[in-house]
Design a protein that fits this description.
single chain; alpha/beta; TIM Barrel; eight-stranded parallel sheet; two-stranded antiparallel sheet; 11 helices; about 40% helix; N-acetylneuraminate synthase; PseI/NeuA/B-like_N; N-acetylneuraminate synthase activity
């Protein structure tokens, strides 16, 4: 089975769909978001992803008045959540910029009003964050949009994934193996789960959403058959914010996309043959012919 997002087909032997997650690494700055979109486009990814929350719904009651030191001064956690959210006009601006650079763009909505907000922007797909796998009300709202859905599976049991897919269906879902540790250490990556998910949900494309340092684990995921790869991106891992440390800088993103395409070429078609490049060595080295 394949899933189509925008003009891209995911699965079925197609090249991996690479998603650069900007998330909240724009720090509420439209110009920074545009710079990150440019970084993603220049690297050759297919999509950029954001996060969308309604702060009054998504901020826990006990956290709302907690002071937080930010680049804009000390403010309550609720004020900070508002400060880093884009409004409709800002999303139109960044969405138009992504489209001009030839990228799909969408977001992870964290609540039902955010689904409605993104639908008004006509996003091509929706992403379910790992933290939302058990939010049945949100999943039902996403199902009812009729859009393709990318479902991350971090911090989730197989039974919770089963339940989410019962709500969403499987005909337009891409599953993403993930471990929700920031940054993730190699011993928690558990990449063999990619094949477990593929076997458990036949026909559902399975990708990988990574939060590790470096590139090796994401590249190994592609070698194991991941049909999509998602990584956070930043201009500088030392920037202020919670996700920058587990993000790729521009050079790292360039190398990731380059190496994914090399691996895809190297995997070949599985048909054993003698390649043209082997003919001269064979004539020189093989003493007994068949």
């Amino acid at each position: 089975m394949t899933v189509t997002i925008g003009t891209h087909v995911i699965g079925g032997g197609r090249p991996a769909y690479v998603i650069a997650e900007i998330g909240l690494n724009h720090n509420g700055d439209v110009e920074l978001a545009k710079q990150l979109i440019d970084v993603a486009a220049d690297a050759g990814v297919q999509a950029v992803k954001f996060q969308k929350r309604t702060p009054e719904i998504c901020t826990p009651e006990h956290m709302r008045d907690t002071p937080r030191d930010t680049p804009w001064g000390t403010m309550t956690y609720l004020e900070y959540r508002h400060r880093v959210e884009f409004d409709h006009a800002q999303y139109v601006e960044v969405g138009d910029h992504a489209a001009l650079r030839g990228l799909d763009w969408f977001a992870s909505p964290w609540d039902v009003p955010s689904v409605e907000f993104l639908e008004r922007l006509n996003v091509v797909a929706h992403k379910v964050a790992s933290a939302s796998v058990t939010d049945i009300e949100l999943l039902e709202a996403l199902r009812d949009t009729g859009k393709p859905i990318i479902l991350s599976t971090g911090m989730s049991t197989v039974e919770q994934i089963d339940r989410a897919l019962q709500v969403l269906g499987t005909d337009r879902v891409v599953l993403m193996h993930a471990t929700s540790t920031y940054p993730m250490e190699p011993e928690e990556s558990n990449l063999r789960v990619i094949s477990v998910l593929r076997d458990r949900y036949p026909g559902v494309p399975v990708g990988y959403s990574g939060h590790e340092r470096g590139l090796q684990i994401s590249l190994a995921a592609v070698a194991l058959g991941a049909v999509a790869v998602e990584r956070h991106i930043t201009l500088d891992r030392t920037m202020w914010g919670s996700d920058h440390a587990a993000s790729l800088e521009p050079g790292g993103l360039n190398h990731l996309v380059r190496d994914i395409r090399i691996i895809e070429t190297a995997l070949g078609d599985g048909v054993k043959r003698v390649f043209p490049g082997e003919l001269a060595p064979m004539a020189k080295l093989r003493r007994v012919t068949a």
